[in-house]
Design brief:
6 helices; 2 strands; 58% helix
Length: 141
């Protein structure tokens, strides 16, 4: 990502929250908006890099590096590294495993992070039918 794009994202996030009166709410909204904008930039950047024939994000050295356990994405990659996704898992399985390690997240938060890992091809997902429900199952690629 280039600096101009990052600065533009920051300015857009600032503009989006400038009319908010409550400072704590304003800060939290700014963080969320900026995070979403930066995620989009990162997705565009990595897509552009891979389409030019540059090193893919799935380079073996990148997978071997220990993920940061300070973020949800890093914690999910830790589960993958530990072999949790060798078998297909549903979101509630993932939530329960994270909870057993002391990391508590609602399903609504997990779904977005899992989709991001699928887009990055760190995980794959399949549609499955359980009874009358259609659900996603996640596994290693």
């Amino acid at each position: 990502m280039d600096d101009k794009a990052i600065i533009e994202a920051r300015k857009r996030a600032e503009k989006a929250v400038e009319g908010m009166a409550d400072e704590s709410l304003k800060v939290k909204a700014f963080e969320q908006i900026l995070g979403k904008l930066l995620d989009r930039l990162e997705d565009k950047y990595t897509t552009a890099q891979s389409s030019r024939g540059k090193t893919s994000r799935r380079h073996p050295a990148a997978i071997a590096a220990p993920p940061s356990q300070d973020t949800l994405g890093g914690r999910l990659l830790t589960l993958r590294r530990d072999g949790f996704f060798r078998d297909q898992r549903i979101l509630s399985d993932v939530r329960d495993e994270l909870a057993s390690r002391g990391w508590h997240y609602p399903l609504t938060t997990l779904s977005g992070a899992m989709q991001k890992l699928v887009r990055r091809r760190d995980l794959r997902r399949e549609r499955a039918k359980v009874g009358n429900k259609r659900i996603w199952k996640y596994a290693e690629p």
